[in-house]
Amino acid sequence: MTLPQTNTTPFYLPTIDITPYRQDPTSAASKQLIHEIRTACTSTGFFILRGHGIAPSLQKSLFDASAKFFALPTATKLSIDMKKTPGFVGYDAMASQSYEADVLPDLKEGYFFGTEAPVDDPEEVRHLCRGRNVFPPTDVLSDKDFRVPLQEYYAAVRDLGWLVMDLVAATLPYGPDVFEGLKASNPNCPLRLLHYPPSPAEVGVGGKGRQLGSSAHTDFGAVTLLLQDGHAGLEVLDRATGEWVCVPPDKDTYVVNLGDMIRRLTGEVYQSSLHRVMNRNETDRYSVVLFVQGNLDFRLRRLDGKDGEGEEVPTVREHLRGRLTRSYKVAPGSKM
Prior knowledge:
The protein is α+β, with helices and mostly antiparallel strands. It has helices spanning 19-23, 28-42, 56-70, 74-78, 122-125, 147-170, 180-183, 260-265, 316-328, and strands at residues 15-17, 46-50, 90-92, 109-113, 115-116, 130-131, 191-196, 214-217, 223-228, 234-238, 243-246, 254-258, 275-277, 285-292.
């Protein structure tokens, strides 16, 4: 079955309230919002999501926890450096990543929280962003101030992430179970806390000194759910004009975008757009991101069955490892 093509030349970033779908997926209002999501998927691959059902108090508690974590001494944060922990979880040091070869490392720091796996399964804990999560010592940041709000928020936003995958499935002609293979085997859904300091004056200027909060990239996984604080910074490339479009922050919404896995699965009919972060504010910017990646052993075959003859089809794990290796410049053969 072939996906319908949608030609939309203007930059399309709709705000979509999914309340009707959460109440009755078969209603006329649900069918209309699914149509709007399909149009977004075939144009920018971005849309703004309202009616998500996650309590504002839960979001605030996570932002508070994030600010407390990033305010810790650097040495404390580096004690749980993700490059030293099994499963690629923990602290993501300042200026350790870049998606572009001709810019300085990104002016951001982060923290990865992964899918929990059985502690007695050594095979599980060596995978990407899963296994034993690591936390700062409780004498410097208590469980109630960090671990608890993190775990509570993660449970809620992970469910929302899979609901968004159901919405994307509803836009496709392959039935509601099209992503069941991705959902199998304790699927990967890492959460990332991010802190962007104010950008120095030369940020955004051409030349060797160019440094962004997050350099231009497409996301690696299936779908991404971004929660922004009140500070602008996210920009999406308008492919038609070559200009960067600011996505205004709104604490009541999530920015949803498709990743490269969905683009591949749909034969590039659905889009994964370049985006970046530039913190032009005078204060720190915080955001929280959920990456829905799925079953690491799932092979990323085109949904229409039109993979090239003899084409090597990567698993989710192989795809993610390749992208992470390039962005962190990790040496080939390293444990990741």
